[in-house]
Amino acid sequence: MFLLSSCSPPPDQLGKLDLVKWRTDRGGCNGVRASLVDDFKTVRQELKGKSSNEIGQILGRPDSEQLDDRNQKFYIYFLEKGVHCQDPKVKTDSRSVALRISAIGLVTEITFQRGRP
């Protein structure tokens, strides 16, 4: 059963959130994610407790990863266009959402901010 679930295609919808649109707007550079913020907020509690692998399948590869103390990390998804669209290494103050991934690989917190946490 595990093998079947790991090979299944990523979901297209989570609640009202259109995951296809979310995943195709890499870095929020096309302005699509900005229109999906309210839908994302309605499903963020459903994302808590999911593994980092599940998050990657649901939301797509994060735009940025940041290591934190005690083997935790953040998956960062930008919500709007910014300087990161031209150069991902440049510091940006564009709106983003960060998912804190615990040392055991589960989402424990989801926050909204400008730039990276």
Describe the fold and architecture.
The protein has 117 residues and is of the alpha+beta class. The chain has four helices and six strands; from the N terminus they run αββαααββββ. The chain has helices at residues 2-6, 19-24, 32-47, 52-59; strands at 13-14, 17-18, 64-67, 73-78, 95-101, 107-114. The strands form two sheets. The chain has a four-stranded antiparallel sheet, covered by helices on one side. A two-stranded antiparallel sheet has the order 1-2. The radius of gyration is 14 Å and the shape is globular. Residues 1-5 have low confidence and may be disordered.
SSE blueprint and pairings:
Layout: H1 2-6, E1 13-14, E2 17-18, H2 19-24, H3 32-47, H4 52-59, E3 64-67, E4 73-78, E5 95-101, E6 107-114
Antiparallel strand pairs: 1-2, 3-4, 4-5, 5-6
How would you briefly describe this protein structure?
This is Outer membrane protein assembly factor BamE. 30% of the residues lie in helices and 25% in strands. With 117 residues, the chain is α+β, with helices and mostly antiparallel strands.
CATH topology: Beta-lactamase Inhibitory Protein, Chain:B, domain 1
Supply the CATH architecture: 2-Layer Sandwich
Determine Rg (CA atoms, Å): 14 Å
Q: Uncertain regions: pLDDT < 50 for 5+ in a row?
A: 1-5
Sheet bearing the most strands, described? 4 strands, antiparallel
- Report the total helices: 4
Strand content: 15-25%
Number of strands: 6
Strand order in the sheet with the most strands: 3-4-5-6
Distance between the termini: 37 Å
Mean pLDDT: 91
Number of separate domains: 1
Shape: globular
